[in-house]
Amino acid sequence: MSQHKDIRVLLGNVAIARGILEAGCHVITSYPGTPSSEIMPAAVAFKKEMGLDVYTEWSVNEKVAYDNALAASIAGKRSAVAMKQVGLNVAADSLMSSAYQGVVGGMLIVSCDDPGPHSSQTEQDSRFFAMFAKVPAYDPSTPQEAMAMIKDAYDLSETFQIPVIFRPTIRLSHGKQSVRLSPPDIIERPAKFEKDPGRWAATPRFRLHLHTKLNESLRQIQERFEKDERWNYEVGENSEANLGIITCSTSYTVLTDLLEELNLKDKVNILKIGTPYPLPHKKVVDFIGRHDKVLIIEETDVVIESQIIDKSKVLGRFTGHIPLQGELIPNVIYGILAKFFGEEGVADLEVKADDELAKLVQDLGLPVRRPTLCAGCPERAAFWAIRRALPEAIYTSDIGCYTLGLNLGAVDTVIDMGAGITLASGFYQAYHQDKNDVPIVATMGDSTFYHSGTSSLINAVYNNTRFILVLLDNEITAMTGMQPTPGIGITADGTEGRKIPLEELVKGCGIKWLRNIDPYDVKEMISLLKEAHAYTKSEDGGIAVIIARRGCVIRYPEALEGQEIKVEITDDCDGCRYCIDHFECPALHFDEENERAEIDRKLCVDCGVCINVCAQKAIVPVDEEGQ
Amino acid sequence: MMRMKTQIILAGVGGQGVLFSSRIFSELGLKLGLEVTGAETHGMSQRGGSVVAHIKIGGYQSPIVRGGTADILYSLDENEAYKNLHFLRQGGLCFVNMTDGGRFDKNIRDHLKKKDITFHAFDASGMAIELGSVMAANICLVGFSVGTGLVPFTYDDLKDVLQSISRKPDLERNLKIFDTGVDLGKKQ
Ligand code: SF4
Ligand code: SF4
Question: How sure is the predictor about A2, in pLDDT bands with cuts at 50, 70 and 90?
Fold first, then answer.
């Protein structure tokens, strides 16, 4: 890296963090979630590298993160809040209101979209949230552009005193590009809250006034976007071409590479939109006016397309030219172009996938590596116990690695953060109404419980529900890349915060039956679950909570030291595959030749949990002495 | 030396250092003063899952390689190689790490031949283990490709990159593994 100090290849999210710091931001908050999770660690790394005094916070959820950043901006500082797209649903309440009240210092809301979806419940388009809340949206195409846009977004945010949505898609967040770095702007902004109850504590009467002002700001912002040539510009300017394409985000980059590859650059003009809301409508109308047909390629939904009033020449999702779901990867855009250019008689693009190869590979019957819990994962042990102890129960669960309890048949529902508990209480009431109390086991991870478990649990206790809640405490937010939780009390930049043990929270929610267990102790956990079930049935019973605590094996490999139980599979194995199909530890393989299970020593962490699984008792601890 | 534009797919499973290889090529691009784009899989933090990285050197805009257009596929795992072959263009290059290259599916090999795709497989992991680190099979594989003389990167440039991005304690070993790969590649 030595000789090119100011040019580095950065991951999109790292470039975004860098851009935020270069723009002189003072406060950054976030809740982890793919594809946004790398922004906060990168911000922490850069602030340390550059010796900046920036406050960085992993908040307990997105709404909390939003409000903390917002307060900084109301006090005149520059703030940023980063989350994944569904996180913005959690923060929506704050977003809607703060759009009216605005900010003083610039505020950037980074909401990373996940078309595909690769790692999300929905493919929702955050730019719709900008329209819904009436705040401007920036839609970068590359990491380098993102960095430049962020500076402009802060300027806009401060000029119009309005929070701004910044929307990268996953391909930008997890894409890499060589980018040019600049030193950070140092902006002195001591916190200074100017009291103004008509604005900061606006009652409905003042809200109408704020809404009127917001509409006026939006009109002016639209004018600024109309004039802007940096984010909204034409490429090509071939006056002969009668076809146009309006595009944005990473779709713009894919399109550019494709037209280059296919040598079709002169057949079509492109209008690239970097600020989809409010849409620079005059610019768009002018562009459409100069062409016979205009195709809109935008990811993920119809934000630009729906803002165009006269659609008579427009092709897009409303006309069936663009898929309504899924990611616009290069071969999908290739297909879109083939149809468009074919219909317009411009080019005849062969859609030639190598079907023969696809078939040959398919015939190999490669093992499909469905995502599964890691070898030695304590959550697998807990799910196994739950499944054994209460096979008839309804299993409500939640979002995290443990969603994969699905594979063990111990997860029936996954809706959104916190629903593990609320669905349990809801199911309880629905069945209880019919005097048919079925066993219900809710599972939730530590980070999810801190995120949105307590309000659900308080509600469930208050309303006399009965079920078992197993808190899977692996002492980290594992799925999104090992972020700390209030349970371990370490903050975003590694400094010490205050620990808030799950036990205290659970008791504070009014729970009277609480037990702790190490889930590796499968037998004990099964009997504990039965005990818990009895409590939910007893006369003065209620909700039983079990905290199944053992650190994530990936994060805390040292936790197993000295406790290893090395296992082997004896000749008693009759090849029933039960352990592989129903326990699914990745370290257990089936040896087709010898028709028996075998252990992959490279993956096995010697947790010994699988000893409990084999009915033939073929999985046994290695007899070290006898060897 | 390097062709203006090169698209590379790096495949493997978690823990094999795919992302390190991706760094090798992005730093190479930077060193040559070329624009670099690329993409990485950042999913669940589990081990053993598929990992794919795309690297595009020399003036590309988008981070992802279109199926059927990649110049080179490096795969650290046999199965991941099959899954990512569709990225290769007619006439592309394929380097696979597997204990016994002869076991690579015959029909697929024939199919690759029809598409003028050059296929090489060898036991990079075995080699790397012998030299002290299974984690460095990726370096061995890249070295091998340079040795064959088929790839558009030079020995010196890659060696420089390895020198600048290897952690100090690994440097000597990495260079040795790289050179061993190169020598093997030359014998092809
Ligand atoms: S080890 Fe036990 S459960 Fe697994 S295949 Fe053999 S007999 Fe079946
Ligand atoms: S001991 Fe058994 S359950 Fe634990 S990692 Fe090894 S094979 Fe998997």
Answer: very low
Domains A7-227 and A567-621 share a fold: no
Question: For residue B131, is it within any domain?
Answer: no
User: Which of A372, A588, A611, A619 is the best mutation target for the ligand 2 pocket, counting ligand atoms within 8 Å of the beta carbon and taking the most?
Assistant: A588
Q: For the domain made up of A378-559, give the CATH fold.
A: Rossmann fold (3.40.50)
- The Cα of A366 is separated from the nearest Cα of chain B by a number of Å equal to 7
d(CA A184, CA A169): 25
- Report residue A349 as tokens: 């693009």
Per-residue pLDDT tens digits for A335-369: 999 999 999 998 999 877 889 999 999 999 887 76
What's the CA angle centered on A288, arms A286 and A292, to 5 degrees?
Answer: 135
Across the range B134-160, mean pLDDT stands at 94
CATH of domain A7-227: 3.40.50.970
Q: Is the pLDDT of residue B1 over 50?
A: no
- Considering only CA atoms, give the Rg of chain B: 15
Mean pLDDT for all residues in chain A? 94
In this complex, do A4 and B22 lie within 8 Å of one another by their Cβ atoms?
Answer: no
The model's pTM = 0.93
pLDDT for residue A616 is more than 90: yes
Does residue B56 lie in a domain region?
A: yes
- Shortest CA distance from A252: residue in chain B: B62
Ligand 2: nearest atom to the Cα of A619: 2
| Interface contact flag, B27 A175, Cβ < 8 Å | no
Between the CA of A12 and the centroid of ligand 1 the distance, in Å, is: 45
**Residue A618 clears pLDDT 50, i.e. is over it:** yes
Residues of A in contact with B78 (CB under 8 A): none
Smallest CA–CA separation between B158 and chain A, in Å? 13
Q: Identify which of A75, A83, A78, A72 has the alpha carbon closest to the alpha carbon of residue A52.
A: A78
* Strands A175-180 vs B36-40: parallel, antiparallel or unpaired: antiparallel
Residue B105, classed as helix, strand or coil, is: coil
